[in-house]
Amino acid sequence: MLVISTILFAIALGTGILAFYQILVRDRDPVVTRLRDLRARALASRPEAQEERPNFIVEILATIGGFLPTGESTESLRSGLERAGIRAPRSAVVFLGTKVALAVMFGVGWLSANYAMAHPIGSSVLQGGIAAAIGFYLPTMWLYMKGETRKTQIQTALPDALDLLVVCMEAGLGLNAGLERVGQEVSIASPALSDELLLSNQEIRTGLSRSDALRRFARRTGVDDVYALTAMLIQADKLGTSIAQSLRSHAESMRTKRRQRAEQAARKAGIKLAFPLVFMIFPALLIVILGPAVIQLMQAIAAQNATH
Predict the structure, then answer these.
(1) Residue 99 forms part of a structural domain
(2) What is the pLDDT along the chain (308 residues), one digit of tens a residue?
(3) Is residue 281 part of a domain?
(4) Do 145 and 224 lie in a common domain?
(5) Residue-range definition of the domain harbouring residue 144
(6) CA 279 centroid distance within chain
(7) Which of 118, 152, 186 is the last residue of a domain?
């Protein structure tokens, strides 16, 4: 039992370290990201890509997640996955299977460690339950952070993309062709926005109405600026007004909002710096500055007491 518990704990620890390395290091490396995209496009262009064998781990996680009740939370889960840029067919069940697998691994690993160190069984069970709960909610936290990061990237790149769209439409392109062109141009600066624009253009090509495709685009991103943009485009399309002129005024207002957000973040920087200054830097400065004086004062008091 001890050997099995130790092996399970080692597997859980190794999986956690590998996941943190993948999230914090590899996913932020632009060279690795670019190479991964090029490889995915090359594999997708091959005829045999449609017959690719499924991943064994993905199959296991999907099997585990398939037994979980997803009833009322299915739509919110799919919305969260879409906002994080995850659109695989079985992403929901794989995500749920990952939550269950991490909960079991964290709980069993903690119980194994406490058993190996001969801790009391009562506290070990309680702590194991807490560890299992942490493992269960870790994927949710990761999904939320990934979605918020993606929303920030889209929000930051949207004004520049609108400027490109205005240039394309004033050069003679239609809205659909302009969306496709802008999606191709911003693929390096903002891959998230590029994917969403190209997906919206593909939905329009497959027969979905432009207004529905734009609404789905706003719902997938969850960005307030995108909601305002889609509402403006739908209204301009219904009323028959100039889309290029409407886009130009809307892009100017979005640039103003981006500048205001930057100024707001700059004003908040002083307040955010107050906490590390007060709790981390000032105590060290006080120790360095007043430390020698306190030592000399204590020595003087000790010497005076010795004379008496």
Answers:
(1) yes
(2) 555 666 766 777 777 676 665 555 555 556 656 666 666 665 555 444 444 444 555 555 555 554 444 444 566 777 788 888 888 777 777 888 888 888 888 888 888 887 777 777 777 778 888 888 888 888 888 888 888 888 888 888 888 888 888 888 888 888 888 888 888 888 888 888 888 888 888 888 888 888 888 888 888 888 888 888 888 888 887 887 778 888 888 888 888 888 888 888 888 888 888 888 778 888 888 888 888 888 888 888 888 887 76
(3) no
(4) no
(5) 2-152
(6) 30
(7) 152
Q: How many domains does the chain have?
A: 2
Assigned domain for 16 exists: yes
- Tell me which DSSP letter residue 53 carries: P
Best CA proximity match to 158, nearest among 195, 200, 186, 188: 186
106 within a domain of the structure (yes/no): yes
The CATH number for 173's domain is 1.20.81
Answer yes or no: do 13 and 132 share one domain: yes
DSSP letter for each residue of 139-199: HHHHHHHHHHHHHHHHHHHHHHHHHHHHHHHHTT--HHHHHHHHHHHTTTT-HHHHHHHHH
Q: Which amino acid is at 52?
A: E
Burial class (CB in 10 A: 0-12, 13-18, 19+), 302: exposed
User: Do 59 and 191 fall within a single domain?
Assistant: no
- pTM across the whole model: 0.64
DSSP character at residue 222: -
